[in-house]
Sequence to fold (543 residues):
Amino acid sequence: MSVVSHESDSPFAVKGNVWDRVDRWIERCGEKLNPILVKEARQSLKSKQFLITFILLLICGWGWSLMAVAILGRNVYYAPSGPFLLVGYSIILTVPLLLIVPFAAYRSLASEREDGTFDLLSITTLSSRQIVSGKLGSAVLQMIVYYSALSPCIAFTYLLRGIDIVTIMLLLFYTFLASLILSVFGLLVATITHIRHLQILLSVALLLGLVAATIGWCALAIALVTEADSAPYDESEFWIGQLAFVTGYVAYFVLFLMAAGAQLSFASDNRSTKLRVVMLVQQVLFTGWVMYYWLKFRWDEIPFFLMSCSGIHWMLMGALMTGELAQLSPRVKRRLPQSYMGRAFLTWFNPGSGTGYIFAVVNLAALALLANAAGLIADWKGDRCAPDQPAFFTFTLLLCAYVAAYLGVGRLLVLWVRRHLYFGLLLPFLVHAVLLFLGAALPTFLQAWLYGFDDFDDYTLLQIPNWMWTLIETGADDIWATPVAPILVLLGAAVIFFVNLIVAAKEVEEVRQEEPERVRQDELELHPELASREEKPTSPFDD
Fold:
């Protein structure tokens, strides 16, 4: 017995027990991993595409090392040659990260829908978001492997002098972020439609876009490396700008990820509320950062920039939201707000083209009120950052009017087409894009045809539908030379808004459904602890 106790107290026994606990902890973590991640990791790392790409990456890295040393010759001993080699390595790394990995992520999900294997995944206990995150996790794993293959070469460039570690880390960090958001965007594109010929068109468009993004990023990497000496790394404003960019990046990454998961969910699920919360957070973050730079640099053009970018944002998001269906399952209806305040403030987060239209217009109008209030305060204090108040007020008013008008007309067209044809979110987006293009192009062409190019620069009443020309004239404070134009724009937008409000009445009237007694009893049988738990409000506005 003494021998046994002596052995148990030995350091080897303690070490064995520690490693046993670590092994059990790793095993438990492995069991909690996303099954889609495990499946996709096995398939991707064993695929010929990954094998060929990995071998080519190693060959190109090795070949560029020899070629660069041969080109530099004896200068490699005396002259700083780190930037020269880093440019080549960054291009070699950018091609698989920004081209191969995102397109492979797109094909992994698109092939599931084309081959019908996604139907088997949809009947499992896995949620749609777990499926998307598993696909994305496989793409991240491939990125890590590519990084590990070329990281010794990139570290070698620092030893050759001429490049600092901060530039290298920023280059690698932003390349990873670019690959990550392109991968999740590829997954989102794969969920847009399951029709084969449309998938072919989308794959070609995505491939061309990835090629353009890869070329652009290579040019940006070259500029970053060559201008590293003049980079303001020691200034706080530089790092504040990086923080602003990263917060915007995270917001759009979450939006793409959640939108991809929502597209894979069933049609009557609540696929909109969380997405609209993210859209609102994006607007709040953007407004906060722009206001910070407005107070920092005191430029009176910044409020115009804020409203212009926000108008583009809500026009884009509204074009997607106005194509949503208002179908809600009974389970989703049991979670709707029930108090008057809850319905007044939270109904616009529910799925539906009408609630989406009002959500976009009201958010842009609220931002216009906030921006005008900030401008008035700055003007009252005599601050030089205050914009020209009459021009800015008219600009924000007409911007909201144009967004309300074009989104409203597009929504009514989409509702009419949907009576005869079923479609997803791609067609509504294209309808709004065509409307915006025709609204700017047709009046311009008509005026050039009627008056010729001699009087082409003069703004006329023919340009009322031309949102671009009208807003430019408004920003320059020249719109009141034709006072009828803004009045007609506002009247037309008001009519279109109220027509859409009437059509959306059915969506607004959705109320919470009581939970059936049978469902309540089943839940109590499955979860007996719920019997002693008090029912709490589902939102701060609920009773």
Observations:
- Residues 243-543 form one domain.
- The chain has a mean pLDDT of 82.
